[in-house]
Amino acid sequence: MKNKFYILFLLIGFLSVTNLWSKTITVCATCPVKSINEAILQAEEGDTVLVKKGIYKEANIKIEKGITLIGENMPTIDGEEKGEIITIGADNVTLDGFKIINVGLSYTTDYASVRVVNSSGFTIQNLELEKLFFGIYLQKASNGKVLNNKVRGEAVTEFNSGNAVHLWYCKNVEVRGNDVQNVRDGIYLEFSDNITIKDNLSKNNVRYGLHFMFSNNNFVINNIFETNGAGIALMFSKFMDVENNIIQKNWGTAAYGLLLKEVNDAHIKNNLFFENTVGITVEGSNRLEYANNDFTSNGYAIKVKGACYENRVIDNNFLYNSFDISYNGRINDNKFNNNYWSNYTGYDLDKNGIGDVAYRPVKLFSYIVNRTPETIILMRSLFIDIIDFSEKVSPVFTPDDLMDENPRMKQINHDRN
Amino acid sequence: MLKILKYSFYDLMRSRWSYVYFLFYLLLGVVLLFLNNDLSKAVITLMNVIIILVPLIGTIFGVMYYYNSREFTELLLAQPVKRSSIFLGQYFGVATSLALSLVIGLGMPFVFYGIFNSNAIWDFSLLLITGAFLTFIFTALAFVIALSNENKIKGFGYAILLWLFMAVIYDGLFLMSLLYFEDYPLDKFSLVATMLNPVDLSRVLILLKLDISALLGYTGAVFQQFFGTNFGLILSFVMLVFWVVIPTFFIWRIAKRKDF
Amino acid sequence: MIEIKDLHKKFGKNEVLKGIDLSIKEGGIFSILGPNGSGKTTLIKAILGMVLPDSGEIFINEKSLKNNFKYREKIDYLPQIANFPGNLKVNELIDMIKDLRASEATKDEELIELFKLQPFLNKRLVNLSGGTKQKVNLVLTFMFDSPLIILDEPTSGLDPISHLRLKNLIFAEKEKGKTILVTSHILSFVEEIADEIVFLLEGKIYFKGSIPELKSKTEQPDFEHAIASILSASYA
Question: Confidence class of residue A224 from pLDDT cuts 50, 70 and 90?
């Protein structure tokens, strides 16, 4: 794999760079070139710097030309907490196979293990980042890749920790196969468009597994978000695809699997929401499609906080959630159809697989709990069942048109790889 | 006391009612599991049954047993046996046989279904343990009621009332007071109110397993500590034990002072 | 044997025993008589410790009954209405009582033979007739060898042959020097067996002594009339 990239980049270098004969500079303790900084100084556009196994105590490594920096057998770069470690300021830079530790901590500057500034065509892969503040910080970068990196932070609170993969004003970046744990936000995007986030594992992060602000046309596919402060927060963004993700075990007072705030025209498809306090929290989001998802054993499957119009919730499984849907207010402009609800108690006399009675997913009790949260302690009490039943028969507090007219009788088998 | 317990238990184990009770649970388990084929759903339905039905059956059976065995009790009273032993023995005999019917009746279908290979085993065991506790609690309360009321009809009336109160009315009052005082911090109050009703207590104990995700959504620090740690589980169990011990103490005290 | 001192008992507002002083010597058959509601059963139950007195004290063999249950090992009691746990079999019930009392020297087999109970031994008590139950009851009472025997309406439900056997049984026990306390409504039965009677009326002892003494006190030729005259005098 490493060799392939190596060859690929040699090839790119071969075609695009004026210097046809690029050279390789080797760095090691016993080599003529003993430090990475020195090697970079010697290298020219298109060259390769090969770093052998060892510990290199260097910080503020600046790459200002399109070179390939490769580590052999994971050499360690120790920044000794002197500030930023690697800063890339040129196009077509490849960074591959290093363990990078001890980024300096500052409350005024966001130091990163690796920062890419105003560049394109970069590849950052196979890094292991520890003792970091920010991990991989992409700033106005485009057309690059962040692949298979492993980030292990030691974040305890939001205030003295940074994000593992941070994108700010970026375009066309692929973030794939990364494993980011114990930082503030696993992956963070602000003002970044056309980003693909795929096959990542984002776990145990203090704030969000994935955080979007003002970013459009992005794909979030096949990721796992687990036991984060909250799984995914999408805010002020549009045209997103969130598909095939597993979002689970986000527990806590403000925890949810997926937050949608002012998000329009997004597709939430084929995801599994498992054991979250809230599966999805939605606020001020319109024209969203929720299809083929599994909501399993969440406190609330979907919590609608208000101002959500023309959303469609179709062909999902709602399994053993304490509350299926919670709603503020009585107005509903969203459509629920053809879902399977494990709480459904109707019958199917014509045997067409669709229940003959509509299902009302909003219970009066969820309304009561919204108003007085302490009442949650009465959940599943017979008394609550009785008032829920009477509300079901004649809705007074909950939207009377909010129902699934065609509830399925059997659980849908969603293909999920 | 153990001798009395043994004979009461023998007697009950042969009674028609134990079989009816046992078969009822067996049937319930089979229907829930094999017609529905959904373990998680079965556990949730079972919880409703256990929380409502077990107390009812415990109460009625306890009262019925006491009144039906009055003459026999008098025979025992003339024997050189301590009074408290007679009543405690009878009580434990009834409660144990009821609890066994429940545990075996429900346990068998679940074992055949393969509960041991399932994640639901803990939820299920918790259900059964809670059910057994509720049986002991409500049988004890029934004995207290029966011991304090010579009149059979009155005794039955009070027993049903007690059940109705614990299972439904209490929660209604509870909910109303929560809504009425919603401007005040209520988490301590609601925990205390829960502890004071064994039905609620058992329900919350099961909620800790089934609905923990939802419970953790609440912000109060007291709730957080209660639901978020083992503290809630331990406290609930301690309270359940109290709920068995206190009525049992009353059985002992009333029995000691009562004329027959 | 039994010493009762100033015994009072109220059930609610109803004062049942209004200061009973009674001493019963060892040996002989004593019959407690009285109209309905006179306090016979309450008195017996007080002796058995089933009713706790409001004031006064009872001593059996000079030992107070308070906080004491062991003394009942020395008493065989036949309750008025016998109802047993229906699902036990007769022999299980007999074993159970033996087990509870943990006393030796039982004559159960002899008694079973006497009342012809063998065919019923393996039957459940719920399936027995009233008379058979009473026989089982008698077996349970007489199978021990306690110095004090208390019989509450022992004749109820018995056929004439069993009745006769019961009488013989009581006499046999008396011969052994036991003290026997009996209540009964059947005056002929009382007259036949009782050495001494205690007549209770409205919670007090109206008369204590032998039947001839009663006859002479009431100036009536026979026992039944003597009793009737007490009752009519008191209600007049």
Answer: very high
CATH of the domain at A182: 2.160.20.10
pLDDT tens digits for range C133-167: 888 888 888 888 888 888 888 887 788 888 888 88
Same domain (yes/no): A294, A413? yes
Residues of chain B with pLDDT under 70: 219-220
Which of A75-79, A162-166, B92-96, B185-189 is predicted with the least confidence, judged by mean pLDDT? B185-189
User: What does the pLDDT read at residue A18?
Assistant: 47
Residues of B in contact with C71 (CB under 8 A): 80
Q: Is B123 on the interface with A (CB under 8 A)?
A: no
Q: Report the alpha-carbon distance of residue A19 to residue A28 in Å, rounded.
A: 25
Residue spans of alpha helices (H) in C60-107: 90-101
CA distance readout (Å), B54 to A173, B93, B94: 60, 16, 13
**Residue A239 within any structural domain of the chain:** no
Of A253, A342, A377, the CB nearest to B219: A253
Full DSSP string of A17-39: -S-SS--EEEE-TTSSB--HHHH
> Could you tell me the residue range of the domain that residue C197 belongs to?
2-235
Mapped to the 3 state alphabet, what secondary structure does A45-93 carry? CCCEEEECCCEECCCCEEECCCCEEEECCCCEEECCCCCCCEEECCCCC
How far apart, in whole angstroms, are the C-alpha atoms of residue A131 and residue A114?
Answer: 13
The answer to pTM > 0.95 is no
Residues of C in contact with B150 (CB under 8 A): none
State yes or no: chains B and C have 3 or more CB pairs below 8 A. Answer: yes
Same-domain check for residues A152 and A132: yes
Distance, in Å, from the CA atom of A268 to the CA atom of A221, rounded to the nearest integer, reads 10
Residues A349 and A380 in one domain: no
| Chain A adjacent subunits, 3+ CB pairs under 8 A | B
pLDDT tens digit string along B170-196?
A: 999 999 999 999 888 888 888 899 999
Tokens of C20: 């009973």
Same domain, A372 and A411: no
CB A157 within 8 A of CB A184: no
Instruction: Give the angle subtended at the CA of C195 by the CAs of C190 and C199, to the nearest 5°.
Output: 60
For residue C64, the SS3 value is: strand
pLDDT at position A94:
95
**A279 and A417 part of one domain:** yes
What residues of A are in contact with residue B191 (Cβ under 8 Å)? 377
Backbone φ and ψ of B175, nearest 5°? -60, -45
Structure tokens at A75: 């050499």
Residues of B in contact with C134 (CB under 8 A): none
Quote the distance between the C-alpha of residue C140 and its chain's center: 14
Are A364 and A356 spatial neighbours (Cβ–Cβ below 8 Å)?
no
The answer, yes or no, to whether residue A19 has pLDDT greater than 60, is no
> CA A112, CA A103: separation in Å to the nearest integer?
7
- Two tokens at A345? 């108690």
**Partners for C (CB, 8 Å, 3+ pairs)?**
B
In chain B, where the domains are located: 2-257
Tell me the per-residue pLDDT of A90-129, one tens digit each, with 9 for 90 and over.
Answer: 999 999 999 999 998 877 888 999 999 999 999 999 999 9
B142 lies within 8 A of chain A by CB: no
**Cα(B57)–Cα(B20) distance, integer angstroms:** 11
Structural domains counted in chain A: 3
Chain-chain contact of B72 with C83 (C-beta, under 8 angstroms): yes
Query: What is the token pair recorded at A155?
Result: 């974040």
> Does residue A246 form part of some domain?
no
What would the two tokens of residue C199 be? 């007549």
**Which three-class secondary structure state does DSSP give residue A131?**
coil
Cβ-defined contact of A277 to B51 (cutoff 8 Å): no
Verify that A283 and A323 share a domain, yes or no.
yes
